[in-house]
């Protein structure tokens, strides 16, 4: 970890305390992460630690018993948590990010949102939203869900399959998108895990192996009428997806862990052909400088974007291009940093007994998290063209 006294992204005592909490958790997670990665097992033990530390309620509004952290603080925490285990950070990031998103937009009926928050605070429940499907792919691509909602007495019967359902082994309730045939439109429904809900353990991937992103199967699952959420964001409360910065923060944290591993290796590895360590070699120092440049540029942009988002009280939708660019810059920088770290360490970097090869696999998953790279490029292009009235 970076010494907090030298970390330029910690600006005050509150942030220092939050960072210290995340770093304690990360140190604990680092001791177990290799086992979960090897087994592809879900880190229930990590989530137990998160619950005990109060991490699950960080974005719950203060009046509902939470800490109501800012987006900047969320980035600060996720960056540090992923240093210890990327899978855990990404999985819990969806939970705390969505709670922040729902509060910012007011898209849920207030009573429903307040009950969710109270259950998070009192019981430590975990929440997520599942939208991806085998046929429609990522919801960001605009595909119509094959999951259906059919009206029945007192509510709806939901049937379908959701893929990439992160943290599915531990979620207590989740939102699903479903097509309503009688209305010929898509709606969202809040589903509680219970009768008719099953998990097929399909998640067996190259990286982020411990996120528990299995398939969730819904077989005529009943949800009450008041659990239908026709999300209408009130005017002026669009958040432009700021909460999704939990994703690039996670990959930056993994990249920092890879950087530090490479630095420690370079400082301690002393082949008998040299009088000192390889850290003294100009070629190795050039590689270290390249890693540092990539990390500093990406982190500066990520943190400054989060800070500007917090300070911009109106027209947050104008920040959408920069929010997407922060994800693009951080994710691609993380991939480059880990690649350089592996070149410094050499053949040993491929060893399953060392964490570097896991970092290499994990950061590549960022390419497939939203927002997608081609969507970001198109948004930037449209923005640039509009500035020239083209």
List the helices and strands and how they pair.
Layout: H1 13-30, H2 33-39, H3 44-53, H4 71-84, H5 86-105, H6 110-123, E1 127-130, E2 148-152, E3 155-165, E4 173-180, E5 185-192, E6 197-200, E7 214-224, E8 228-229, H7 246-268, H8 282-311, H9 320-345, H10 356-364, H11 373-387
Parallel strand pairs: 1-4
Antiparallel strand pairs: 2-3, 3-7, 4-5, 5-8, 6-7
Helix pairs in contact: 1-3, 1-4, 4-5, 4-7, 4-8, 5-7, 7-8, 7-9, 7-10, 8-9, 9-10, 9-11
Provide a descriptive summary of the structure in words.
By secondary structure, the protein is α+β, with helices and mostly antiparallel strands. The protein has three domains: 4-126, Acyl-CoA dehydrogenase/oxidase, N-terminal domain (Butyryl-Coa Dehydrogenase, subunit A, domain 1, Orthogonal Bundle), CATH 1.10.540; 129-229, Butyryl-CoA Dehydrogenase, subunit A, domain 2, CATH 2.40.110.10; 242-387, Up-down Bundle (Butyryl-CoA Dehydrogenase, subunit A, domain 3), CATH 1.20.140.10. Helices cover 48% and strands 14% of the residues. It has eleven helices and eight strands. It has a four-stranded mixed β-sheet with strand order 1-4-5-8. The chain has a four-stranded antiparallel β-sheet with strand order 2-3-7-6, with no helix packed on it. Helix 4 (71-84) packs across helix 7 and helix 4 runs antiparallel to helix 8 (282-311). The longest helix is centred in the last third of the chain and has 30 residues, at 282-311. The radius of gyration is 22 Å and the shape is globular. It starts with 12 loop residues before the first helix and ends with a helix. 43% of the residues are buried. The mean pLDDT is 95. Residues 14-104 form the Acyl-CoA dehydrogenase/oxidase N-terminal domain.
């Amino acid at each position: 970890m970076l010494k907090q006294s030298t970390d330029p992204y910690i600006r005050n005592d509150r942030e220092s305390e939050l960072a210290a909490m995340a770093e304690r958790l990360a140190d604990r997670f680092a001791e177990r992460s290799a086992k979960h990665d090897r087994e592809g097992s879900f880190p229930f033990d990590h989530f137990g630690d998160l619950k005990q530390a109060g991490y699950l309620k960080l974005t719950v509004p203060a009046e509902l018993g939470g800490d109501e952290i800012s987006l900047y603080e969320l980035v600060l925490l996720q960056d540090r948590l992923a240093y210890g285990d990327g899978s855990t950070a990404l999985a819990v990031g969806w939970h705390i990010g969505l709670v922040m998103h729902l509060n910012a937009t007011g898209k849920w009926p207030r009573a429903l949102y307040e009950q969710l928050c109270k259950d998070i605070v009192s019981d430590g429940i975990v929440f997520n939203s599942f939208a991806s499907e085998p046929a429609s792919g990522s919801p960001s691509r605009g595909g119509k869900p094959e999951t259906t909602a059919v009206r029945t007495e007192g509510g709806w019967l939901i049937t379908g399959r959701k893929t990439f359902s992160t943290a599915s082994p531990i979620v207590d309730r989740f939102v699903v998108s479903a097509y309503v045939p009688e209305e010929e439109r898509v709606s969202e429904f809040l589903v509680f895990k219970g009768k008719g809900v099953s998990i097929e353990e399909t998640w067996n991937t190259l990286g982020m192996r411990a996120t528990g992103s299995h398939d969730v199967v819904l077989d005529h699952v009943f949800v009450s009428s008041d659990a239908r959420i026709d999300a209408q964001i009130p005017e002026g409360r669009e958040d432009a997806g700021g909460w999704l910065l939990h994703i690039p923060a996670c990959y930056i944290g993994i990249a920092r862990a890879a950087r530090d591993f490479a630095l420690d290796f370079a400082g301690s590895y002393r082949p008998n052909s040299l009088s000192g360590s390889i850290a003294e070699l100009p070629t190795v120092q050039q590689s270290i400088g390249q890693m540092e440049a990539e990390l500093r540029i990406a982190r500066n942009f990520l943190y400054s974007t989060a800070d500007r988002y917090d300070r911009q009280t109106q027209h947050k939708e104008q920040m959408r291009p920069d929010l997407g660019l922060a994800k693009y810059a951080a994710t691609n920088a993380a991939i480059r940093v880990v690649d350089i770290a592996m070149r410094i360490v050499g053949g040993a970097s491929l060893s399953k007994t060392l964490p570097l090869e896991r970092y290499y696999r994990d950061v590549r998953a960022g390419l497939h998290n939203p927002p997608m790279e081609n969507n970001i490029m198109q948004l930037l292009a449209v923005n640039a063209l509009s500035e020239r009235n083209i």
